[in-house]
Amino acid sequence: MKAKHLCAVIFAAISMAACDKMLDNVKPYLDEGETIYVGKAYYTVLPGKNRAEISGNMPYGITQTNCLIEWIKPSGEADSLRLPLDRAASDTISVVLTEMEEGPYDFTITTFDAKGNKSIPVEAHGYVYGEIYESALINRKINRISFDGANVKVQLVPTSDPQAVESELSYEMPDGSFTSIAIPIDLSEIDITGCKSQGIVSWRTSYLPDSTAIDLFYSKYDTLTAPKIVSKINLTDPGPGFEMDGDPYVNGRFGKAKYWTTNAAADGNGTVDGNSDNCLDLWAWSGYSPGPLVNGKIYQTLILEQGEYRFDVEMQKDNSIDQAYLVAASGNTLPNVENLSAALASLKTTGANGGEILSITFTVDSAGEISFGMLATVPGSGEFAVRKVELWKID
Question: Is 10 helix (H, G, I), strand (E, B) or coil?
Fold first, then answer.
């Protein structure tokens, strides 16, 4: 029995010694007294251009009077900002940090009350963008810029970059001022009105590196020259479907063009093909046409004022004739093939494909009669078939 009592006394002594050691571990904290924690901040870091916005709220507590925002720069250097808080007016935290280096950041926010009590520090990661990011941005490409008779049409290459927002296009007006328009990133074609003929067109593309970013970033500008503005001149029977004067008189298929001037060489074989959508046709086929074609002509004559002009022709069929031309000339007729040097302008059409649009540009020095149209010599077999024509004055 005495042995049992002795064991109990020894066990109690050991236990008390152990408790004393446990108290030694927490004694410093107990000596400090009660710790009061202030309601902490919940926040996000919104990236910008050499800046970042700290945006958050304090859903718990009402005693916060200030907060300490600390961050580690990409270089490893530490920095901080103490921000006063008015909890009676708002439960939010919002501040924009400026002059920030580009790169990743580690942030910590600790809130304090008037007595110096603080919250549990809250950490967050963020990123600041700058010149390195912006210098790598690619401007959206313009595939084609043209004049369609009413407006300047801009066709852009589609882009699938999820960070691209829109393209900003600036163009010169006739008075020398500039107008800017925004082109949504999913739009590939747009008309611009009032653009100066051969004026300056410049554009850049904006990017948002993150859906929460507070700044847009821009590619470098690209610049080009707008096309010459042209006005359409009304022609009689420009096609498609040229009117035939009477019935076909060659093989029940070819007849004479009603509203176009044609010479005897062209009329011999007929100048409108009723079997090919009534296209204009300078042609000869061995064994089928009444004869070969030498200097066949189909043209119109107008009195044009001084200026620059463009004559467009859309081909009906492929052209393999070696001596087939678009021609513009002064006077009331076209020159022969051997005298093309006397023309204001000419274009050899050999090798042109059906559906292709061919053009010649010519200058009228003084108002007067100008003839424009098609000229061909076909010693063997072949045809120069035209679907429609257009005449433009270039401003």
Answer: helix
